[in-house]
């Protein structure tokens, strides 16, 4: 009860509410501009939130990412250009409804399913996280080691089309994480006498480089889109939506459940969640006309709920274990560490007001999505008027100042260029970025837990299989490797041409 | 630029070899079996193995695939100029910001990137100036980031509050 009143006190703070509204508008605008992703919006926000108190800082990220993911639906439905990859799964369905004069239905279904998906995943987060944290309190360095390896394994297996390239990317990220002082003995590694490298590569400049600069490199090389498209009339967005959501309650529930589960899986984000929910719903429509309005709305509702629900799901491993569920929560975890709000099971004991306030912000942000989302749809024409030519250098300057503001060195600014180029070439060669980034963030955790366990046991590897919890996690980890290998072999066998 | 998987594999092998080479120089502290080189040694070994498998699998399509595939944008000079404008603008910033100050450098960066997109100076300079002033207000005044002022130190009071 005391916590509830404390959380209410935090939520009613005018400063926090202003931060939530401002970051909501920021997220909606960036998400609605095709090519600018929720991830990029988050990466660009980090230098600003670094100067805020912990709770408003995380609130800004939660709100802007949720809004950006929904806003990606708007250009998808109105122009057949998904604003973010998370909306790509159902862009064709949404656009075809718009062409039939049902833009209001298409956007309304996307908006309200996003809100419901976000609220349901927030509920799961609030109920599941504290219970999982109690279990996590029994973890020693051995269990943390296995859990981190399990998280990284999942991130690698679901991260891209090539398993080998995913593993290589993960190892590359882990390798980058070893630059700087060794966490156990303090010996400098791979610093080559450069003082700026003693503290490591600097996570925020790396994230800005990987997610923002590499995206800018892709954007500037894209051909001009040509004439501005006419914006179709939208009509009423909210009329009859309560009835529509009730009618499609199973799709909302299915999308939200899938989204929360996929989000909680390290490495899989909103886009994968949306694709899976879309595919599952499509499969459930066997024997029905896939082009009927009813079926299209079902798919939009399910995938729309899933992509927003994945956000809440991703915060479960992030807050309970300190293991990011996707790239956005990877950024959140780094911000939490930098702000002294260390994620992990002890946060529920040491800082309950802060963590429950963060959970409560999910509810506030998702409810706020209804009026602001409708406003964003109505003013979409204005957002489209922002010329892309001018946006590129402005974002570039934000990246430069952002990297400098966190590290206060020009070395960090140089890093964003190098890492941006590296990210661009990795992406061009189908080497997934998510395992590399998670490897970079979790590298020190794995090394520290591994070395601590080995030192405690005097070098006995059996320490990793001594406790029942450790054995369970080890079996899960090794099982996930075996499963990934078997699935790969099955895929290869299916792809092999049949000899007649 | 997409390269053949043999080259991708070789890239990871080289990184792995370099890691192992450096890790071998890191000696463990006294009385400890595992030192700062142990973890990089494991990662380096993993990179060599995985890189090796990627390269080996890439060999199967070496005859049918070119060693590298140039993206569409790289076929024109304009494409290269656009691509290089981003790292060049960052390099320009790093090189001159201490001497020229943030305001002037930010305008130059904006003008450079906009010029590549064909925006005339009469538009790019005012756009750069407005962006530079807004960024200064946000980062220097509100967030107290120590942005350098260069020759404009005397007018810093106008924008700091």
From TrEMBL, chain A:
DUF112 domain ranges (all copies): 17-438
One Pfam match: TctA
Transmembrane segments: 7-26, 58-78, 107-132, 144-177, 197-217, 258-280, 314-338, 354-377, 389-404, 410-426, 433-450, 470-490
Keywords on record: Membrane, Transmembrane, Transmembrane helix
Keyword DNA damage applies: no
The keyword Membrane appears for this protein: yes
Annotated protein name in UniProt: Tripartite tricarboxylate transporter permease
Organism (species): Azospirillum aestuarii
């Amino acid at each position: 009860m005391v916590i509830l009143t404390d959380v209410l006190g935090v939520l009613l703070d005018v400063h926090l509410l202003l931060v939530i509204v401002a970051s909501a508008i920021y997220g909606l605008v960036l998400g609605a501009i095709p090519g600018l992703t929720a991830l990029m919006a988050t990466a660009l926000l980090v230098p600003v939130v670094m100067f805020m108190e912990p709770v408003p800082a995380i609130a800004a990220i939660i709100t802007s990412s949720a809004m950006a993911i929904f806003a990606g639906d708007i250009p998808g439905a109105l122009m057949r250009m998904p604003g973010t990859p998370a909306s790509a799964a159902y862009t064709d369905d949404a656009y075809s409804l718009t062409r039939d004069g049902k833009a209001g239905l298409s956007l309304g279904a996307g908006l309200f399913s996003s809100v419901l998906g976000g609220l349901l995943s927030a509920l799961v987060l609030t109920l599941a996280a504290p219970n999982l944290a109690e279990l996590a309190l029994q973890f020693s360095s051995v269990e943390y080691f296995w859990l981190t390896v399990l998280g990284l394994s999942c991130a690698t297996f679901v991260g891209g089309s090539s398993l080998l390239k995913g593993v290589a990317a993960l190892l590359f990220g882990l390798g980058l994480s070893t630059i700087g002082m060794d966490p156990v003995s303090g010996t400098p590694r791979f610093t080559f006498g450069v003082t700026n490298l003693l503290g490591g590569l600097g996570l925020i400049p790396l994230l800005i480089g990987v997610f923002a600069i590499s995206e800018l490199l892709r954007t500037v090389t894209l051909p001009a889109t040509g004439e501005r498209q006419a914006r179709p009339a939208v009509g009423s967005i909210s009329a009859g939506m309560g009835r529509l959501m009730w009618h499609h309650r199973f799709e909302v529930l299915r999308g939200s459940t899938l989204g929360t589960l996929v989000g909680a899986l390290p490495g899989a984000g909103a886009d994968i969640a949306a694709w899976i929910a879309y595919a599952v719903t499509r499969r459930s429509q066997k024997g029905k006309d896939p082009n009927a309005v009813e079926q299209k709305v079902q798919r939009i509702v399910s995938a729309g709920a899933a992509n927003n629900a994945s956000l809440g799901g991703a915060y479960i491993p992030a807050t309970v274990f300190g293991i990011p569920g996707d790239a956005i929560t990877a950024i959140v975890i780094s911000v939490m560490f930098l702000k002294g709000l260390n994620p992990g099971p002890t946060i529920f004991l040491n800082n309950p007001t802060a963590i429950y306030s963060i959970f409560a912000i999910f509810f506030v942000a998702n409810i706020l999505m209804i009026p602001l989302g409708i406003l964003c749809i109505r003013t979409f024409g204005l957002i489209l008027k922002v010329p892309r030519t001018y946006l590129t250098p402005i974002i570039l300057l934000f990246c430069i100042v952002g990297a400098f503001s966190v590290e206060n060195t020009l070395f960090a600014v140089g890093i964003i260029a190098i890492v941006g180029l590296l990210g661009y070439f990795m992406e061009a060669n189908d080497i997934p970025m998510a395992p590399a980034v998670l490897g970079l963030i979790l590298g020190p955790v794995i090394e520290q837990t591994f070395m601590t366990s080995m030192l405690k046991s005097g070098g006995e590897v059996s320490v990793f299989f001594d406790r029942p919890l450790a054995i369970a996690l080890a079996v899960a980890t090794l099982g996930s490797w075996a499963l990934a290998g078997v699935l790969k072999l099955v895929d290869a066998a299916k792809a092999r041409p049949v000899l007649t | 630029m997409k390269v053949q998987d043999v080259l991708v594999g070789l890239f990871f092998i080289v990184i792995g070899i370099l890691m192992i080479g450096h890790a071998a120089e890191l000696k463990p502290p006294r009385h400890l079996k595992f030192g700062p080189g142990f973890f990089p040694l494991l990662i380096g070994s993993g990179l060599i193995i995985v890189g090796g498998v990627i390269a080996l699998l890439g060999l199967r399509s070496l005859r049918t695939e070119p060693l590298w595939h140039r993206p569409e944008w790289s076929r024109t000079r304009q494409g290269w100029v656009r691509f290089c404008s981003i790292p060049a603008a960052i390099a320009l910033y790093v090189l001159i910001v201490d001497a020229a100050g943030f305001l002037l450098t930010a305008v130059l960066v904006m003008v450079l990137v906009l010029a590549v997109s064909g925006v005339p100076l009469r538009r790019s300079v005012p756009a750069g100036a407005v962006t530079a002033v807004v960024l200064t207000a946000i980062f220097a005044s509100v967030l107290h980031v120590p942005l350098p002022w260069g020759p404009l130190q005397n007018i810093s009071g106008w924008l700091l509050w």
